[in-house]
Amino acid sequence: MKLTKASILMSASLLLATASSTPLAAAPDFDPSKPVMTELKSGVYQYSQFFYNSLVVVTDEGVIVTDPSGEVRAEAMWEAIQALTSKPVKYVIYSHDHFDHSRGGQIFKAQGAEFVSQEKCTELLSRDLEDRVVEPDITYEDKYAIKLGDKQVDLHYFGPNDGDCMSVIHMPKEKVLLAMDWHLPGYVNEPYRLNTHNYVAILNTFERTLQQLEFDTVISGHMPSSSPQAFQEDHRFHKALFDAVWSGIQAGKTTEELKKSIKLPEFSHWRGYEENLPAHIERMAYSIWHGN
Ligand SMILES: [Zn+2]
């Protein structure tokens, strides 16, 4: 698919127009295969396709991207980048280990990009039976700063999250936060996604992020758009869920009783609230009881 700068900008404005009023999935004419490159700050873009978002940072010395999310998407992302700059991709950041995010980076490896992840991802990424994940070149333990041209992208490890090696990705100067699968604003997501979702640890990540990082722009892993207000609301959801489940457990209630009795009316307008909330109550109870 050949993209021009004009078509990218036009689809970006269409996406923003839809995203501001309705959830993306609800827009009848929305085509998730269509690549959308949205400029958030000078040289800082959100690339969206197939309901996956990546950060794209363009500098005079090259480009930084996050999460290829499959070969087809990586190739389309590279085409869209070439409409912005003639520079190569220098760094690919893996937000976390899950294969749906990490596969498909070979096109960037071929142009000399270095791949970066939190150190606990290395072993997990090596388990891909389809062998489609480029292994990390650079790993870090607590914090790592990528500096390229006039831009800096920081990776923070705030502990377990969705999986064990989630990087909280932050641009300190541009005040951009990339919060991947742990932040899906306005959405009580499907139960099958909760297996690796360490709820207590994710609440901890929200609190450390709010305490330590300054941001005025937020990219979510899969939702079309977010904001500091949506991030705060999502934190309130996690805190309210924790508080309700915690006090129920302290009062001696079983998980089955909690699933029937807990309601979080502030969030009843969120997509998936009615059908999916009981599974989230169960997962939070498991996380409190089991520690992960
Ligand atoms: Zn994801």
Derived structural class: alpha/beta
Instruction: Provide the β-strand percentage band.
Output: 15-25%
Describe the main β-sheet briefly: 7 strands, mixed
Strands side by side in the biggest sheet: 1-2-3-4-5-6-7
- What fold name stands as the CATH topology? Metallo-beta-lactamase, Chain A
Name the CATH superfamily classification. Answer: Ribonuclease Z/Hydroxyacylglutathione hydrolase-like
* Number of alpha- plus pi-helical segments: 9
Quickly name the level 1 CATH class: Alpha Beta
Small-molecule components bound = zinc ion
Number of strands: 12
Note the overall shape.
globular
- What order do the helices and strands follow? HEEEEHEHHEHEEEEEHEHHH
Q: Point out poorly predicted stretches.
A: 1-23
Mean of all residue-level pLDDT scores: 92
Distance between the termini: 43 Å
The overall number of domains is: 1
Computed CA radius of gyration, to the nearest angstrom: 19 Å
The CATH architecture: 4-Layer Sandwich
The helix fraction, in percent, is 25-40%
InterPro entries: Metallo-B-lactamas, NDM-1-like, RibonucZ/Hydroxyglut_hydro
Domain Metallo-beta-lactamase: 51-222
Protein name: MBL fold metallo-hydrolase
Keywords: Hydrolase, Signal
Secondary-structure map:
Elements: H1 5-21, E1 36-41, E2 44-49, E3 52-59, E4 62-66, H2 71-82, E5 89-93, H3 99-102, H4 106-109, E6 114-118, H5 121-125, E7 138-140, E8 143-148, E9 151-156, E10 168-171, E11 176-179, H6 199-212, E12 217-220, H7 228-250, H8 255-261, H9 273-290
Parallel strand pairs: 4-5, 5-6, 6-7, 11-12
Antiparallel strand pairs: 1-2, 2-3, 3-4, 8-9, 9-10, 10-11
Helix pairs in contact: 6-7, 7-9, 8-9
Bound molecules: zinc ion.
GO molecular function, one term: hydrolase activity
Organism: Ferrimonas aestuarii
Protein name: MBL fold metallo-hydrolase
